[in-house]
Each structure stands twice: as structure tokens, then as C-alpha cells.
Design brief:
It contains 13 helices and 9 strands. By secondary structure, it is of the alpha/beta class. It has a 9-stranded mixed beta sheet, sandwiched between helices. Helix 2 runs parallel beside helix 3, helix 3 packs parallel to helix 4 and helix 4 packs across helix 6. The longest helix is centred in the middle third of the chain and has 16 residues. It is globular. The relative contact order is 0.15.
Length: 335
């Protein structure tokens, strides 16, 4: 779990490596639901659930099959809170059986022993549990429910016992927790799991600038590469960590790859370049084949010139876009 192995879980698929090497689309975010039991102020997904129109399990099976015709994908299963769906393990299994690498992101609230076993049997490739603060009071306040921190920690412990190196804490980088990163890394080390981070996004669709959740200071974020070097379980693309301060200061950044080698599928089937642009879909998986929608994305090139976010999904697409570099492949092997 320290990341010292030569090949880690994220590089466990020859099909995925071949897809990236061929410079094909390789990353997709899938919101299986907008529903959530929590009320995070910087997220506007939970007030807009639209449960009646969520993609069904059978539709996810078809999406998984159509993705496999293009290549092998990292499939980030997100929400809302994905585990509000009783059929989530079956959805995960559909992507796993099609050869993809399903990554689940959860707040941990519904992760009991039975859920862990179902996720393991479904072939989940990695699980990220959201923990933004090293103490319950601040985390629970941010997430809008008492007991959230305790449940997240308990979920992490359960997942780690069953899935080992496939588990990590996921922290949203904000000004409110920028002084807590060392303590958060100590927490994940104590729990025996890895740690990843993503920068707060506050300008995309269904995002919001709110009091109590603001972008961190660029100066504080210059510590990220040093922390990654000091803590082997802090697994991240170094190119992503290097870019956080540059983004916050309006510095030069590489061209966004969203819509070229990565895409987003929302809970009702809309296909867009990224999660920040789900209000501008190029079509719906219920109405057109994915190959057609991918071609529309490439022609629209929605990410060209956009510098609105520096989230981890963008960092992954940037690091491995156009085949990736030696340092990026090394970082991937540690994840």
C-alpha cells in the first residue's frame, strides 16, 4: 500500500495500457445518480436528482460494451452518492466484465461489510472515500450531516481489510483545509490506504462559490510535490501537483484534453466533454452510439482553450494524453 510495487492496481490491465499507448480515448466519468444523502454546499447535484430518468443497469451494460469497442477505459463511477443505488454492484460488474477499470468514489455512509463484499465481487478496481478534514467537526459541517467523518473512516477500514491497495482517501483541496494536509496524510497512513487529492472546482455547471469552501492559496499548494516525495502513499501524477499553483495564479497550463481522450456521461445519459460542461452535451447514449458521440466531441473540441478547472480528472487526462510520458507512467504504477 506504500506504492513501492513496480506495477500497481491502476496499471493492472494490458488493455488499458494499449489504449493509452495508441492515444485513444481512455477516461470516462459516469454519474450513475445525482441523488445523495449529504448536502455539500459546493455541489448542486443533490438538489437535482431526476431519479426517474437515471440510466438503467441494462443501459449501463450497453454503454460498457460500446466503450469496449473503442478501447479499455478508466471508468470513474460517481454521483451524487453512487451507493444510494441498490444495483450499483451490478453496474460496476458490467464495466468490469467489459474489460474496463471501474473506480468508485463514495462518501462512505453506506459502506458496511456486506456492501464491501458486493463491491469486491463486482470487480471494483479502486475505491476513493471522501475525507476533507482530519477531524469530525469540520468534515461533518462541510458535508452537512453529523457522523459523516466517522462513517467515512469506518468505511475506509472495512474496504482496506478486503481490498488492500485498491483503497484511498480523496481530499478536495480548499483554503479551509490547506493547513491540514500533513495531518490528513497521517490519517491515511494510519488507516493503511493511499491518498489522492483534487482541487476544488467552483466555476463549472452545478458548482458554486460558497462561504466555507474556497480555492486554496497558491503559495500553500507549492508544498504538494514535497509532500508527495515525503509520503509514498500520497499517490498522484506529479505533473498534476505541479500544475495546481500555476492554475491558481493564472499561469501557463497545457491545453485541456477534455473531449479528446476523456469524456463525461451524466446520470440521464448526456455525453459532454467533462463534468464541468454537462449543460452542453453533444448527445445522449439513448439516442446515438457512443462512437458517434465521441466523434461529435472530437469535432466540437469543447476543451480547446478552456482553463476553468484543474481537477484530478483533468490531471489524469493531461498526464496520459497523447500516450503519456515516462514520469507519468511511473506515477500511474504507484496508484
Amino acid at each position: 500500500m506504500s506504492g513501492r510495487a513496480a506495477v500497481g492496481p491502476m496499471t493492472g490491465s494490458a488493455g488499458f495500457a494499449w489504449t493509452v499507448a495508441r492515444r485513444r480515448p481512455f477516461s470516462v466519468l459516469v454519474q450513475v445518480t445525482n441523488r445523495c444523502n449529504l448536502r455539500c454546499p459546493f455541489c448542486d447535484f443533490w438538489p437535482n436528482p431526476d431519479r426517474a430518468h437515471e440510466l438503467t443497469h441494462d443501459e449501463h451494460v450497453r454503454v460498457a460494451t460500446e466503450l469496449a469497442e473503442v478501447g479499455t477505459f478508466l471508468v470513474s463511477i460517481e454521483g451524487g452518492e453512487p451507493l444510494v443505488r441498490p444495483d450499483l454492484p451490478a453496474i460496476l460488474a458490467a464495466y468490469s466484465r467489459a474489460g474496463h477499470l471501474p473506480l468508485l468514489y463514495t462518501n462512505g455512509w453506506f459502506v458496511d461489510d456486506a456492501a464491501v463484499e458486493r463491491l469486491a465481487e463486482a470487480g471494483v478496481h479502486q475505491v476513493g472515500v471522501s475525507v476533507d478534514f482530519p477531524d469530525a467537526a469540520r468534515h461533518d459541517h462541510m458535508r452537512g450531516a453529523v457522523g459523516t467523518w466517522d462513517r467515512a473512516v469506518a468505511a475506509t477500514e472495512r474496504l482496506a481489510r478486503r481490498l488492500g491497495p485498491k483503497v484511498h482517501l480523496m481530499t478536495v483541496l480548499m483554503r479551509e483545509n490547506q493547513e491540514d494536509l500533513e495531518t490528513l496524510l497521517s490519517l491515511s497512513a494510519r488507516l493503511g490506504v493511499k491518498h489522492q487529492v483534487t482541487l476544488l472546482s467552483d466555476v463549472g455547471f452545478r458548482r458554486a462559490r460558497v462561504e466555507g469552501a474556497t480555492r486554496p492559496d497558491a503559495a500553500a499548494m507549492t508544498a504538494l510535490p514535497r509532500l508527495a516525495a515525503l509520503h509514498p502513499h500520497f499517490t498522484a501524477f506529479r505533473s498534476y501537483l505541479d500544475g495546481v499553483s500555476a492554475f491558481l495564479t493564472g499561469g501557463e497550463l497545457p491545453r485541456c484534453r477534455a473531449g479528446v481522450q476523456s469524456l463525461n456521461i451524466d446520470h440521464v445519459g448526456g455525453v459532454s466533454a467533462c463534468i464541468e460542461t454537462i449543460d452542453r452535451p453533444v448527445g445522449n447514449v439513448r439516442e446515438a452510439p457512443l462512437r458517434t458521440l465521441l466523434q461529435r466531441l472530437a469535432e466540437a473540441d469543447r476543451g480547446a482553450g478552456c482553463q476553468d478547472c484543474w481537477t484530478l480528472c483533468r490531471g489524469t487526462a493531461q498526464a496520459l494524453g497523447q500516450g503519456g510520458g515516462v514520469r507519468d507512467w511511473f506515477d500511474l504504477a504507484r496508484m
